[in-house]
Design brief:
The chain is built from 11 helices and 13 strands. The protein is of the alpha/beta class. The protein folds into 2 domains: 152 residues, Rossmann fold (3-Layer(aba) Sandwich), CATH 3.40.50; 117 residues, Hypothetical Protein, Haloacid Dehalogenase-like Hydrolase, Chain: A, domain 2, CATH 3.30.1240. The strands form 2 sheets. It has an 8-stranded mixed β-sheet. The chain is globular and about 60 Å long. One of its GO terms (molecular function) is magnesium ion binding. InterPro entries: HAD-like_sf (IPR036412), HAD-SF_hydro_IIB (IPR006379), HAD_sf (IPR023214). This is Haloacid dehalogenase.
Length: 286
């Protein structure tokens, strides 16, 4: 019996527009009402399901690619922090890069807001304006990003993850080589190769979900996981009940072994509901 359902967000649990719409929320609410746990397993520094449009549905969170784990009330359960000496060496080695430094209490950016927005080279001016507006709202709520942080200010925090975008391929290769030489301390597990998502070497979504399952008294064969990208591979490899939507990349599909429909057709939330209803002995209508 599946007692814990863990899913990536974009391209997986959320709809085509990266939203938890009424279809997604209704499915997740039904699964939680059955007594099962639903876990948001994401690269984002999510604090609760409410942050992602799930309202008052109690959801556990494995955020920042497994570096930060929170219970269904948003309370911090576990944080896997990067050694401060390792973090300092990384930032000193690449002084020209803007580091988005993720800690349990927020995000600390080593550049200005405008410089950080400019690093999103694939975003339009309108997209960047919307991002700035969203962050201003978060600042008012006390959860926004802090910009223009010095290295000393960053190192005062318990940093769990670095998000970095390189302005050119050459610098990207240099950073990749730097991380390869320090693979005993750091790992890069990006969703897509447009950025670096750097955390402690032993951190990934699979290990974090195993920790959370044990904390909740759930065995690993009672866990179902869903993912579509590079930062999902570890959890898709680890758990027997692993699924990838048809829009996933080929590596995620191979790691999962079982491919279901597209996230455009709500394949993941529908699969969760079908699983729960089948376990309850209810007739499932497609």
């Amino acid at each position: 019996m599946i007692k814990m359902f863990a899913s990536d967000l974009d391209g997986t649990l959320l709809n085509y527009f990266h939203q938890a719409d009424c279809v997604v929320r209704a499915a997740v609410r039904e699964v939680v009402a059955s007594g099962a746990h639903v876990v948001l397993a994401t690269g984002r520094p999510v604090r609760s399901g409410a942050d992602q449009g799930f309202g008052d549905i109690p959801l556990e969170v494995v955020g920042s690619n497994g570096a930060i784990i929170r219970d269904s009330h948003g309370v911090l359960l576990k944080a896997f922090t990067i050694d401060k000496a390792v973090a300092e060496d990384l930032m000193r080695a690449f002084p020209g890069l803007i580091f988005e430094c993720i800690a349990p209490d927020g995000a600390y950016i080593t550049g200005s807001e405008d410089a950080w927005l400019a690093s999103f080279t694939g975003k339009s001016a309108l997209d960047r304006l919307a991002m700035k507006h969203r962050n201003r709202k978060r600042v008012k709520a006390g959860t926004g990003m802090r910009f223009d942080q010095t290295m000393a200010q960053v190192l005062e925090r318990d940093i769990c993850k670095f998000n970095v975008r390189t302005p050119d391929e050459g610098l990207g290769r240099e950073l990749s080589a730097y991380l390869a030489e320090r693979s005993d301390a750091l790992v890069n597990a990006p969703f897509k190769p447009v950025m670096f998502e750097i955390s402690r070497a032993d951190v990934n979504k699979g290990a974090a979900l195993a920790w959370l399952a044990a904390y909740l008294g759930i065995s690993e064969d009672e866990v179902a996981v869903y993912g579509d990208g590079g930062n999902d591979i570890a959890m898709l490899d680890r758990f027997a009940h692993a699924y990838a939507p048809s829009n996933a990349n080929d590596t995620a599909k191979r790691a999962a072994g079982t491919v279901i429909g597209s996230n455009v057709a709500y394949a993941v939330p529908r699969h969760m509901v079908r699983t729960v209803r089948a376990q309850q002995g209810r007739y499932v209508v497609e």
